[in-house]
Fold 2-methylfumaryl-CoA isomerase.
Amino acid sequence: MYDILTGLSLVEVSSFVASPTAGLYMAQFGADVIRVDQIGGGQDFHRWPVTRQNDSLSWENLNRAKRSLALDLTRPEGRDLLVELTRKVGNLVTNLPAKGFLAHDRLAEGRPDLVTVRIMGWPDGSVALDYTANAAVGYTALTGPVEDPRPVNHVLPAWDLLTGAYAAFAMLAAVRRRELTGEGGEVRLPLTDIAIGSAANLGRVAEVLYTGRDRERLGNAVFGTIGRDFVTRDGVRFMLVAINERQWQGLVKALGIADAIAAIEIERGVTFADDDGARFAHRDAIFAAIEHEVAQYDHADLATLFDVNGVVHGPYRTMMEAVEDPRLVTENPVFAITADNPSGFAYPAAGAFATLPGLERMVPAPAPRNGQHSEAILADVMGLSSGEIGKLIDQGIAGTDL
Amino acid sequence: MYDILTGLSLVEVSSFVASPTAGLYMAQFGADVIRVDQIGGGQDFHRWPVTRQNDSLSWENLNRAKRSLALDLTRPEGRDLLVELTRKVGNLVTNLPAKGFLAHDRLAEGRPDLVTVRIMGWPDGSVALDYTANAAVGYTALTGPVEDPRPVNHVLPAWDLLTGAYAAFAMLAAVRRRELTGEGGEVRLPLTDIAIGSAANLGRVAEVLYTGRDRERLGNAVFGTIGRDFVTRDGVRFMLVAINERQWQGLVKALGIADAIAAIEIERGVTFADDDGARFAHRDAIFAAIEHEVAQYDHADLATLFDVNGVVHGPYRTMMEAVEDPRLVTENPVFAITADNPSGFAYPAAGAFATLPGLERMVPAPAPRNGQHSEAILADVMGLSSGEIGKLIDQGIAGTDL
């Protein structure tokens, strides 16, 4: 956590990944993020992976540093409280339907300068999830082994994560606009627009329209440059990429393949210097030359040779191996052991991705227990008396963690 | 494009994907993004896909709505001009090395409240690219067909895209902090921290430490819920997900498998209602029941049935098919035909991902030609006279597109 967005508050009504990460990033920068959930937890409260006590290790990491207000959102009184809270706070991030009880126009009736950032599936309001959005835009057709034509979904919920980060950006942009102009408004972020928009930004839409055909599947090879996975003599599979001239020259030098490359240039009538595209077009021959040399080395020796020559490479790991890497987790200042998690399990948790040299990086705060801050929020933000709060709790409209 | 960040300026010195998308998102929201490149184009200027004239369809989409200043950055005079520009503008996004001539502390000597957002590979300054970061954190081990143990890289540069969006968020957060406190600073965003931090946020780090082992590979099945790819009678492969109770009930109803599900519950001694985890644990039997029913339908009929019952599903597409989808491209207001691209090729290009009801969405602006705005920037931002500018151009320190 950092104190960067101190003084900024927002209400988060959300589930799963995209919307919670938007709130998480802001909370990790010091914003007061009030996560409102159904009493007892919403639909993502026990999302796997879970502990033996059914505490979600996903939920408790996606919701760190937030405060929890638990309401009975199945009752009009609970929904009215949430509407009132949103109007008081003035900033909302949600993935609830655009036409539901958290419709922006309805909320804005009581708070004209409200900023709402709404994460959606399709723009028309129909549901899309990461895996279906991914299938819809064709990345699944390009991912996976060359020999196997079946589409492959990436396991990383990449569209959710991108949408969450972009939502945090859009929230700050809209808040800035309000500060300068006094105007609020709704920002809608459909997952499918972010998926196809990203494909367009990367030139993929223009590419298929220009070439009139789909790109071929490349397995683990990188399009348009020299990059692929290789296996060393001792059986270590690693990724190798030479995406600029310096990296390419370093690769040729490290493996001592200058003569082999020159021979390919003569045979094919091309020049590889300063031409990533030519290297990619003749990758069959270049890959064969690399493969031959790589197979002469054990991984440790090859890694040293590559490092000395500025070659970008890295072994494939499992998550188990990754969490034991000092650079990634055990000695990475982004991580700190946390023992105050709702699950009771103690482990290294991530703080903000960003590192700000000179600013104090605080230990990652735990996720709240459901309803942990209900009383405080109803008092401080809503201005309710202890009698009123007690009544809401007695009636089961608000819930606490006690 | 939208007018949301009007009045905000930043200098972008960057290449490839992550850093350019940060500038792109801000430019699409109306910020004045000054992209500074080597005269003739930097290392990503001809990144594939390219046209027959070697114009990059990737570059011209990642750099829309920016202005271009071309300098000879191999000469001290060119680098000094860039340093001076950065100090004048006060905001910098870059993926150049932390210790190079754009080191934050050096720049801040002439502009104490400078905000720098720096995208890095590893935190120690060594290079990591999307494909190597992905291999390092273990997502490649989980991606791909179950029967094939080889790691699979996702083709989407997901870590680059996430880093770019988070960088845009971090830039606005840091600018906000400066507006409130007067303090600038550097924000460092290593790709590997974002990759392992995301794994932690999703509960993956806690999971392997809790279970003591790696998660098994699931192919196109979704962890912890009911979701997988299936094939209809007429051979259409589609993705199906039922991530909440409503979707699960809709699926059971749509396929008429209530009896089959009840039989599984009795046989296994479990209850599936309100228990995503139990459904996932017994997915072998549930998937078999779904598979059996799905194979009785042609895709068109099944899609209608699913839609009526609120089931989340979608066919796998190629990019060629995606660009012909009215909801994604041809009738999507996010897209507009652009004919003023540097490549000369006319095609639908994406504007901002965000849609703001009530605000005008302008047609996506084209990417600049290299040096297109050099004279204007040197005059308006740097305050140079036409004589001084002419001299810089004559000496080859600044370049124009003429």
